[in-house]
Structure formats: structure tokens, C-alpha cells
């Protein structure tokens, strides 16, 4: 009925207030009373002007058609221009679509589409900048949906942004609870861009009062984002964005710089390699490029800049981080970490050792291969000699340059809107002799936020507060995480202590943690059981304006504890102070860049 009415009504044109107008409707079809009233009022009250036609979803009049099994539902509208847009929609057994575009209630464009996937291209003749409404309806089954969208530009002298982006202070000024999609998170060719393990867990957080989480952090491996040089899986990320937008969830991304062996991204001599000659790897066929390689830094800059730019199309984008360890944090990688067997300290690939040689030459010192102390299933850099200290310094300088390159890519891609986050596994504990990353003063200087993942089980959760003290002592947005081992005795799917979850989360928020992450994997039943505890925390913290507690700041030199393999920051922490790392004694002399 409605399609037939559009033609009739558009032909009526301007009508004087005293004129008589007869509306003839097709036999057996009835327009709603409200619809007719709105139309008649537009004629009587606005003489000399075209009538305003209230927009209603088109209804297919073929009585033989049945309702669509699902949808069509408009999930998102993106890549919008004055002549077209792309639509992510959901539908089941929807083999044909009608679209109508209206502005201020007036139909301006229409057409038909035969979809071949859940993403369709809508093309239309040129439209002026402004706010429009898209109506999508089935042509082979009955069902419809509407969504507003914005064509950017200038209209009546007012600049219209290309998307609605909340101010940074409003977007980033609240307590958050994110779920990490650990390991396999991103599948660009899946229906929603997510690995099949995760949607069930995300949806388990949907309670009667809303989602218990405020966002997710997606794990994207470099080879999944850029399978071939310059070929980025933008559509895959847009699927994830559409999924998050439909649920009101923020989206952050961990960029994990793994490449498939033999894909020609990493040249010989530039693979991260341990002191015994084994390359850093996961899943037997994934390799990582040297952190000291200028060539690899250039490639990573381009990949991250494009990732940041694509993520920036989402108004709910939050942060980007980078991981080099097998457990996804940012460290000097350790070969074999997390996979059992003997550990190997890395930095022994030719390009890294060439860089160390130049570092020594700049100090007028001879080059020699640094010595690694070994024990059963373990290894550490010997920092008891000047040579060992210099190698630790060069590793720290390399990590600093690598992260600064990453941060620049994040900021360049998003025009400074998306946060750069430094993620680390331990707050300067003795295991830093493996990771060699604890010079936070240098390495995390360019970061907006710091994300500490310290703590092994439910009995040492005080380490979550220690990383917060460092994060806030450095003036960064503070983030920490809890995995199932932090809240249970036996690990995954064995039942977590929900009372401890509430107490720990409240303690973290009260201490100044702004973003808590649920890491690794919680079972859907455990997530559903969190409901009353997350409801309580939402009433008090989650989604509420963030407040940084005022506490005294204690400066902590990372030396000599760094050289001695001792705990660096914990001895200076009282439980009610912040810690500011300083590296004034670390370099021994002026830093050699």
C-alpha cells in the first residue's frame, strides 16, 4: 500500500488551505489515522509549501509473502558519501531489499538491492550534506528497519562532522570494565569479525539492566590485518565495529605483530632470535620481526597507522596497544615463554647485534656477545658486567624506540584521538631479568595509558594495586586485569569467587584504576553469575565519572635493583602512595640515540 501512496502524494504538490483534496486509497488498504492526520495538517497549516510526508517503513503488499525469518535489521551505516554508503544488516532468508532515503520526512531517493552478503552497497544520485533516514525493507519477505545517518559537509552554514564523536573528556572520563578477547579474537571473514568462541561470552554479559561490561579489547595479529602488503582487512574490522555499535560497547585493539612464516614480510637476519639460535614463534608457523630493525618499524608504522585510522571511524574507539610477548604484553620477547622447555633471551638476531655493536662503538667500547646465565628451563642476561649492563641499556633503548614508533602511528592514524597504551606483565619483579622491560620511565613515556597484568593467582592480587601505583605515579590512565586464576583456586570454568571479584574490583576502582580488564576466558555460566556484583559496581563505579585519588608520589630509581635482579618497585610502595620510576642512574651517561 505505502509504495502506491508515495506516487499519489508526491503528485499533489502545493495546495491552498481552502481547497478540497480527495485522497483515494487502493481497495482493501487502510492508512493509519495518525498518518492521515499528519498529512492533512501539513496541507492546512503550511499553505504554499509542499506537504511533509511522514516516513513509515515501506510495507510489501504482496499477500503471498511471509514475514522474514529475521530482519532486515540495520546494524550500521558506514563509508558514507554524497553518492553512496555501505550498510551492515542482519537478516535471515532475505533475498531482496527495497531502500528509501528521506530527509525531514520527505522521500528523496529509493531503489532495490539483491544482497549477496550481510554488507551491501547503496548507491544514489548526489545528496546534499545533512541528516537522512534510511529505511530498509524486504522485497521477498515482509520486515523493515530504519536508521539515521549523516552525510558530512556544510549545510546552512553549519559544519557537520563526518561522524558523531563524543568529546575526549566525556568519552574517556568514566570507569570502564572491558573483556579481553585473548588469543584468537579477530576473524575478518567471520560474520561479525569475531572468533566463534567470543560472542557467547559477550552476550552473557547482557543483563536485564544492560551490559555488565562497557567494552571489549580485540586481539588482532598483524598477518590477519595485513595478509599481503598494503591489503588491509578493513571490512573485517568494520564488522566488529558494527557489532560493538549495536550493543553500545567501546572497542580497543591489541596489535600483535606476528607474521606467517614465508610471507616475505620479514627478511633474513631480522627474525627475533634467542641466544641459542631459536626464533621466537607461536603455533610453529608465526614469527616476529626484530625490534631493532628499522625496516620492520617502518612496516609496523604503516600497518598500525591504517589500523588506527579504521578504528577511528567508530565513535566508541578507545585505545590501541602492542604486544611482543607470547602472553600479549610488551617486553623483550622470551623464546619458549608460555610453551615449556628451555627459555632463551632474545636480541641475538644479526640486525639486533649489529645495532648493539654500533651502540658500543658510540661509547668507544669494543663489541662482544653478551653472556646469558642458564639453568634448567630458564635463562637470564648477566648484568653483573659493564657489557651485560650495556646490552640491557640497548634493549631498553630498542623497546623505547619501538613503542614510540607505535605511538606515532596510533596518533597519526587517528588525528590524536585514540589512546596509545603500554602493556606490561610485571611491576619490576625479579622475572624482569627475563623480560628486561622495567625501565618504564623511558619506554612508556609516550603512552597515554599503562596496563599492568601483574599477579599470578588469587593470593597475590596486591600486585594489581602495585601496578596502579606505578601507572598513576607516571601520570598515565591506569589499567589492570583479572583472569580466572586471580579469582579462583583451580582456574578456568571451575567456579570463581564472586565475592572476591566484587571486593577486588571495588578496591581497584577506589585506588584509581580507570579500566579493569577481564582477561583470558570466563565461562558463560560464570559471567551470568557476576550479574548482582556488576550491578552493584555499576551503581557505584562502572560508567560513572572517573576520580583520581590524591596520594603522595615517591620517586623510585630502577637501579641498582634492575642490575641485581631484585624487585624494583614493591619495596617503595606503602599501599597509599604512587610510584614514579626514574632512570637517572640507569644509562650510566647520556643516552646514545
Automatic annotation (TrEMBL):
Identification of the protein by name: Uncharacterized protein
Superkingdom of source: Bacteria
Annotated signal peptide: 1-19
Keywords in alphabetical order: Signal
Lineage of origin: Bacteria, Pseudomonadati, Bacteroidota, Cytophagia, Cytophagales
InterPro entries cross-referenced by the UniProt entry: GH
Organism: Arundinibacter roseus
